[in-house]
Amino acid sequence: GAGVSQSPSNKVTEKGKDVELRCDPISGHTALYWYRQSLGQGLEFLIYFQGNSAPDKSGLPSDRFSAERTGGSVSTLTIQRTQQEDSAVYLCASSLGGSGGAVETQYFGPGTRLLVL
Amino acid sequence: AQSVTQLGSHVSVSEGALVLLRCNYSSSVPPYLFWYVQYPNQGLQLLLKYTTGATLVKGINGFEAEFKKSETSFHLTKPSAHISDAAEYFCAVSVRSGNQFYFGTGTSLTVIP
Q1: Has residue B113 got a pLDDT over 90?
Q2: Less Cβ around it within 10 Å: N or C end of chain A?
Q3: pLDDT confidence of A99, banded at 50, 70, 90?
């Protein structure tokens, strides 16, 4: 079956522009995560969606970052007024989202490489 | 608070040699522990995880890791490295009461023929 897909695979933008990154999770997975991986850094948690519950936004670094998940499936991460420090690889992961929560295996997409000039 | 430290951002081993990738964590509550691998141009995939029970966990491709509570460690090992093991390896921790996962900075493994 299809894995987690992300688009675009690469994005180059100018400082101050807005960008949208898309994630298609595995069908049937109700949990969805966004991470940011900066050069030389580990994966930084951004946001977590579980079913119809309110998302856990505690990892979003500023109010320029937002994410939504429509119909419990596709998710979009939006970065407004991009800054050079936003340059990173943005990873999306999904999991079954049952009661297991923090014990579940996450399935990662290939990421979107964002470069802000 | 939880955190993960991976000692050695780059590790090189000869083909057939022992692979040892180190991971130490800090957690105020009993953690779940994971190792993920990222092959070139691919997404991260799970190698193995520790939840409860036996502290020696076996994963895919001949890898295993041992949870040592007293040392707060979860080191990843493989007796004999293969060329195909060259990849980036990430250790991660989560806690039972939350939804967040905390990842280390990764270790890049090079296998020398």
Answers
A1: yes
A2: N
A3: low
